[in-house]
Amino acid sequence: MKTLPLPLSLLALGAATFAVLPAQTAAAPAARTPAMVENIHHQMLSKGGSFTLPALAAATAEAAAAADAQYVSDNEKVATVEGALIRAVGDGECAIFLTEKSGRKTKIARVTIGWPIQNPVLPYSWQIFVPDNEAHVFRNKLYVYGSLDAGGAYCSPFLAPVATSDLKHWECKGIAFSSFDKGNVHKGRELWGSDTHFHNGKYLLYGAYAWWGEETENNFYVVESDKPEGPFTNFRWVKGNKTKKNIDGITPKIFVEKNGERYIVWAPTLQPVAKNYLLIAKLSSNDTIDEASITNLGSLKDFYEGPSIRKRGDIYYLVYDENCGPITKRNRTPKRLSYATSRSITGPYIYRGVILTIEDLPGNTNIQGSIEELNGQWFAFYHRALNAAWNRRALCVEKIEFDADGLIKPIKTTSSGIAEGLDTAKTIWFNTSVFGKNHKPSRTGKYGSILVTKRDGAAEIGFRYVFFTGKEKKISLRGSGLQNILSVKIFAGQTLIGETTASSETSVGSKNTVGSKNTVASGIVLHDIPAGKSEMTIVITASANVSLETLDFGF
Question: Domains in the chain and their CATH numbers?
Answer without folding.
Answer: 6-113 (2.60.40.1380), 124-268+277-299+372-399 (2.115.10.20), 422-554 (2.60.120.260)
